[in-house]
C-alpha cells in the first residue's frame, strides 16, 4: 500500500547481498481497497475493528492513501509500527492520524511498554 496506485519495485537481497533481484509489486491505496470493499460507503454500517499497518518506514504514505477511510472513523483500533527515523515524516504521520480524530492509547519501543 502507498499513497499512489500503480507499481513499485524494490530489491530482494540474499544473506550475502549477492544476486540482488528486482521485484515489481502492485501498489494500491488504502482508500482504493476501502472503496472496493465499500467500507467508505454511507450504507456500510459495520465497524472495522482493527487496522494493522507494518510497512517498514512507509507508514506516512499508507495513511496518506487512506485519508477518506480515516475520516469515516469506522476504524476502531489501529496498530502500527513506525520504522521511519525521519522525525518530520513521523510528525506528518501522527498529525494525519490525530487530525482524523484518533488518539494514541499506548506507545512502546521494541522492548515493550
Automatic annotation (TrEMBL):
Superkingdom as given in the UniProt entry: Eukaryota
InterPro entries the record matches: FkbM_mtfrase (IPR006342), SAM-dependent_MTases_sf (IPR029063)
Record domain Methyltransferase FkbM: where: 14-84
Protein known as: Methyltransferase FkbM domain-containing protein
Species of the source: Leptocylindrus danicus
Amino acid at each position: 500500500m502507498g499513497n499512489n496506485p500503480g507499481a513499485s519495485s524494490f530489491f530482494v537481497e540474499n544473506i550475502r547481498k549477492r544476486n540482488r533481484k528486482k521485484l515489481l509489486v502492485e501498489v494500491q491505496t488504502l482508500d482504493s481497497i476501502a472503496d472496493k470493499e465499500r467500507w467508505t460507503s454511507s450504507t456500510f454500517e459495520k465497524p472495522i475493528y482493527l487496522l494493522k499497518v507494518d510497512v517498514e518506514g512507509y507508514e506516512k504514505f499508507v495513511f496518506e492513501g487512506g485519508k477518506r477511510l480515516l475520516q469515516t472513523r469506522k476504524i476502531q483500533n489501529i496498530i502500527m509500527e513506525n520504522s521511519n527515523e525521519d522525525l518530520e515524516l513521523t510528525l506528518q504521520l501522527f498529525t494525519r492520524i490525530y487530525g482524523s480524530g484518533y488518539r494514541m492509547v499506548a506507545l512502546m519501543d521494541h522492548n515493550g511498554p
